[in-house]
Amino acid sequence: MFTIVDVALEANPNSFGVLRDRVQAFAAKEDPKIPGKPSFVRLNQIEQLHFMSLEIFEDRHFDPLLIFENNFDGDGENYWQEVLRLIGEDLRAIFSCTKPAMEERWKSIFAEGSALSIQPFIEAHSISPSASHFGAMGITRQRVNRDREVFEAIQTKLGTGPQPRNSVTPVGLHSQIRAWALPTRAWLNDPEKWNVQRAKRLARWQAVRQTLPSLTAILLAVITVAVVGLSPIVTAEVRHAVLGGVVAIAVGAGAFVVMFLKTLRHVEATDMTQDDPTLDPAQLAAFAAQEDEIVQNHVASMVLVKPGAVRSLAIRGSLRALKLFVPFVAADGYLGSMRTIHFAHWTLIGNSGRLMFLSNFDGSWQSYLDDFVDKAHGGLTLAWGNCVGFPRTKWLTQEGATHGTQFKAWARQSQTQSLLWYSGYADLTVNQIWRNAAIVDGLRKRQLTEAEARVWAELL
Amino acid sequence: MSPPKNKEWKPAAADAPDVQGIVISAYPNMLNAAFLMVQFGPTPADVGSGAKAWLLDVAKRITNAEGERSPCINLALSAAGLRALGLDDKVMSTFSRPFREGITFGNRPRFLGDIAGQAPSNWEWSDCPSAATCIHAQLMLYARDLPEIRTLTAEEKQGLAHFGLVLVGELCQQVNLDSQGMRHEHFGFADGISQPVLVDGDAVPIERRAIHEIAAGEVVLGQTNTYGVPAPGPVVAASDLASRQLKEALLEGFFDLGRNGTYLVIRQLEQDVPAFWQNMESAKIDLCDEKGNPATDQWLAEKAVGRTLSGELLTAEGTSADNERGFFGTDRAGYGCPITSHIRRANPRDGLAPKQTDVVDILQATNRHRIMRRGRIYGEPILDRSTPDNKKRGLIFACLNTEIDRQFEFVQHTWLLNPMFGGAFDESDPLVGPQCPFSIPANPVRQRPILETFITVIGGGYFFLPSLSALRYIGQL
Question: For position A400, what pLDDT does the model report?
Fold first, then answer.
């Protein structure tokens, strides 16, 4: 199971400069970017951690907002223990410059030389995504590393190719490699600890479970009405009254839906858009300086949600729909026909006044946004379409992100620099993670059929 | 199946005299070419009236799109050149970002792979305003034969001297034709085969475009592009001069400086032919061809390129002269044409589709990153590819596109040099990428020789190829 948690803290405006300095100093300590100096010595020790980031969103409507992004394996118990052991004091120093740290109940935690754990503070300010997507569902950080070792060892063993050529069939090749790998990797004969299918089922169940309370409530109401309406012990008057009530509610609900859709189309057609978002050259230079150092990149974006009841309902419904359906339609990592996202999520911030998007993806920003436009525009429009300035949409999923140039500028403008960004596996794409996993899955089997062996050998 | 071919886009009759000829034609009959690389003066203050007078003078001789003549002359300007000519920051800010920043700006060299031995610090010329050999204008001359290009070059050089401009360098180019009339680059491969075909972006919706067809706005500013909107180009505020020379922009109060123009990317790629073939000779050891026989250097080089020397596509069933085909249906895994071969990286067609139902979408997505190539070779073809002759030779890569970041830079970064392209791991383009492994799908398992690179970038720049009216406007500023 993967967990995404953001710690969201409003900066104390009076110590904002100090906050920024401390975040930058921490980032420089973790990632010195000096040749010969190792990076992320501490974060590399957290074996559940996939991606981590720290950024500050500045906005002229609000005080700056500090976000501490965490993407990790498991439910957090071991993870936070490790995080606090390794970087707890840095976090304490950073968090002490935020508004909540000034509150009476947290004072003792942030007192000079305090030995109290900051975990309760983190828990109190943690928020969960409104919708999220994983590229390699169920493949834990430990499995990523384990499978990668197998891949690299096989590549070294195969070298330029088996000698002599054509002396071996795919089935024979599989047997040879398995026989060679087993002595040092006895775990290949054990059941898979990090089973992908199980993880997918769990993610789907979690998605469904979140809608259970509302489903249960509706079901109970229907049963009650049915019992009252059909039971022979109630009088005709009561039955008529109940029937009348049901009809009234149905008519009311129908009218509401019609009104909602009418108003939605009206605001979609008449809301103001931002056709040419201005891009700050200094900011673009800062992005360019950070991007494309490794095969992955990071995006941190914050936009304002459009005001009004219709938009408020629409965005909650849209994100809820994404949350429910993404684990079903994108469990293999494909959003539409793109599979370049490791961990991405949308989170409503500040009583749904703002929508944050954080993503850890493969390839350049340009290729990522082009993929959005070309291959996943429906989902993107659904998630972002209710936000201020977004290109014009139709029925929540149409048009919107297909306005390529406009959409890309809008997304770029909403982005802020990631002051710290950590990837647990800087040279692996989502595709490569799946490829390595499939190689290992094949290697676990004692014998492959001719057809299976061909497919497996193609992965090498 | 890709839809049937549509009518090729040509400029409207009224626009043809305004469009530079190179936009719609690679001048197949002009076998010789020379680029005169011009500098107006070290600072805008030093640029006298000479540069503008020269522009107006050249404008009279520039070849337009009304039909091929001989010889042909075209002109492109760098951002540094436009600034030197006096275009102010306001106008400059309406040009596309990569163009106005230039090919050597900021982190762009890292993005484009121009690092280490390929770094701009080693280049002979660029568009970088602080470089001594910064190019302000590329005067591109094309002629039918050597005597004609010599005469033309001499005349144009005289013109430059007359107007007091500096000639920074001269790139003499030619084509190397085989007996079938096919062009070959120096390693010996037929070149320039797969070109996009322009269609009217309004009249032909994306789902009706054939495999190589793209909207005209991908190559010509102001035309409808792949997103169904006019390709955005530079504009100038209304003025008497603007209203005399330019058409009104869509934007109220502005005139369209970009219309009928485009952006031109030029990179000078030096090729070490004997070293390339020696590398193939040594890397082929231990490799086998499809029949199980020991591989030859030519077999390996053809796998690296994805075509035969004569230009046929490698396919799972052999080779094919038919270029109107995708990869997914018949060669998805790359047993014929390796997934990470040069031509598949440069244009993956439908090959990156995860499954059959994605083929149409993926081809459309791929075609949003096409470029119109106009490259030619420079230096004499080598007599014997295995014997070093210490002569300089290579390719002047040139391409036209309206959004440099979505087209040229995307192709270079996301496809050619991407270490993980198409599911590869830690590889690169076998021709232009750095030394790395190259996976050749085979039965029972891939072969993976290590290939080095024998192509070195020694110059490059981003240029604006204006319409004739835009050129006259700039000349009269």
Answer: 85
Residue A209 pLDDT class (50, 70, 90 cuts): confident
Contact list in B for residue A161 (CB cut-off 8 A) is 286-288, 442, 445-448
> What is the C-alpha to C-alpha distance for residues B151 and A338, in angstroms, rounded to an integer?
54
B106: Cβ contacts below 8 Å, ≥ 6 apart = A285, A288, A289
Mean pLDDT of chain A: 91
B286 interaction partners in chain A (CB closer than 8 Å)? 159-161, 163
Predicted pLDDT at A327: 87
Global confidence as pTM: 0.93
- Distance of alpha carbon B415 from alpha carbon A370, whole angstroms: 13
Tell me whether residues B288 and A165 touch, CB distance under 8 A: yes
- Whether residue A154 sits in one domain with residue A231: no
B-chain residues near A163 (CB < 8 A): 286
The residue of chain A with its CA nearest to that of B413 is A364
Residue at A317 is within a domain: no
Contact B414 A151 (CB under 8 A): no
Contact between chains at B333 and A366 (C-beta distance less than 8 A): no
- Distance of alpha carbon A142 from alpha carbon A148, whole angstroms: 10
Flag if B333 and A404 touch (Cβ within 8 Å).
no
Q: Is residue A414 part of a domain?
A: no
A172 and A99 share one domain:
no
Rounded Cα distance between B123 and A101, Å, is 55
Nearest chain B residue (CA) to A282: B106
Is residue A288 situated within a structural domain?
Answer: no
CATH number of the domain within which A46 lies: 3.30.70.100
In a domain, A254, yes or no: yes
Decide if pLDDT at B46 tops 70: no
In this prediction, residue A243 carries a pLDDT of 84
Domain holding B114, by residue range, is: 1-268+357-437+453-477
Q: How many domains does chain B have?
A: 1
Given a cut of 60, whether residue B44 has pLDDT beyond it is no
Q: Among the residues of B284-388, which ranges form H helices?
A: 297-305, 328-331, 342-346, 359-366
Whether B275 is in a domain gets the answer no
Cα diameter, chain B = 73
Domain enclosing residue A258, as ranges: 196-270
Model pLDDT for residues A312-371, shown as the tens digit of each residue: 999 999 999 999 888 888 888 888 888 999 999 999 998 899 999 999 999 999 999 988
Residue of B nearest to A451 (CA): B444
The answer, yes or no, to whether residue A241 has pLDDT greater than 90, is no
